[in-house]
Amino acid sequence: MKLFYPRLTLATLTLLQSNSFACEDLIEISQSDLQALLPPSPIWNDTKSVRDFVVLDSDLTTPAEFSNFQETATYEQVTDFFIHLAEDSPYVQLSSIAKLANGEDVWLVIVSGEEQFDSKDMVNPVVYATAGIHPGESSGVNAGMMFIRNLVTKEEYKSILGSINFLFVPIMNVQGYLRQSPSSRINQYGPNTSGRRANGSWKNLNRDFAKLDTPEVRAVVGVMRDFDVSFYTDMHSTDGMNYQPDVTWCDNGDAGLSNEIYAWLRTEMQPELQTFLEEEYNHITGVCYDANDPMDPTAGYYPYFSDGATY
Ligand SMILES: *[C@@H]1O[C@H](CO)[C@@H](O)[C@H](O)[C@H]1NC(C)=O
Ligand SMILES: *[C@@H]1O[C@H](CO)[C@@H](O)[C@H](O)[C@H]1NC(C)=O
Ligand SMILES: *[C@@H]1O[C@H](CO)[C@@H](O)[C@H](O)[C@H]1NC(C)=O
């Protein structure tokens, strides 16, 4: 795939601003040329985890696995995958939680080892995850497909399947996700296409959890009203920041609503999860952080906690 980028000279910028640049001002550059400009991608010693999670010989192999993680599944492929899985497995149900302007669905996948798909019939705790709120950050979309497939088809996951109900919104920002382009996220390593950050009306859904202006976020929050959710996580990837940890998280920190939840996250969940990911899978884990000044890494970093209910 070849992309055409304007030569970034002062003259071209002036031409761009005046909206009248000529073809000779354009240079041809490929996605790999662009990635070559980035600092080298850290090498992950992933000998164990790849063997553990990837399935290559199934009609439920995902596009990410087929392409050696060069591609992200499209909206249509995600839809077909979960329709197929729901038909095949008694533990999976697919439902639409919102119909968008052009008729697309925001999907909710309900995975229940108890085979209960109505909140009032569920006994086991409910874990809820959403992905694709920022469509340029599609790791969670593809990982969620692999996770649910493995959860309902592999013997070694039986005990997890038997102890939780798992709710998953694979693509929250459907209209942003539909706009796959090789040039959406040239500032980061990742699949060879990425969607657009904003929704169909240029709203960043990750700023709407307090106001609930958008039908997408209203639907996702509605799931928390309809089910007795014990744990919720929203999956992002990097927005271009390049740092050593390859698995990061953030929560409300000590600014959240409950001191007890904060204490549990820090003293129970975080140490256990970190030990597991680092010792079992050679990941480098850490809290998600952001630069104090994005143009000057020497100005330091701060832990990126969610700021109250907005995010
Ligand atoms: C990769 O991980 C394995 C298993 O943990 C370890 O034995 C090996 O030395 C590691 N290799 C590198 C290059 O870090
Ligand atoms: C992305 O990668 C896949 C698999 O390598 C390839 O078939 C496809 O053409 C690539 N798409 C783009 C836009 O580069
Ligand atoms: C995006 O956000 C706007 C503003 O709240 C909303 O009107 C619209 O329905 C949302 N979704 C799409 C697909 O545009």
Automatic annotation (TrEMBL):
GO terms under biological process: proteolysis
CC terms in the record's Gene Ontology section: extracellular space
Cofactor(s), by name: Zn(2+)
Pfam family name, one: Peptidase_M14
GO molecular function terms attached to this record: metallocarboxypeptidase activity; zinc ion binding
Keywords assigned: Carboxypeptidase, Hydrolase, Protease, Signal
Every Peptidase M14 domain range: 71-311
Top-rank taxon: Eukaryota
Signal peptide: 1-22
The family this protein is said to belong to: Belongs to the peptidase M14 family.
Name of the protein in its database record: Zinc carboxypeptidase
Origin organism lineage: Eukaryota, Sar, Stramenopiles, Ochrophyta, Bacillariophyta
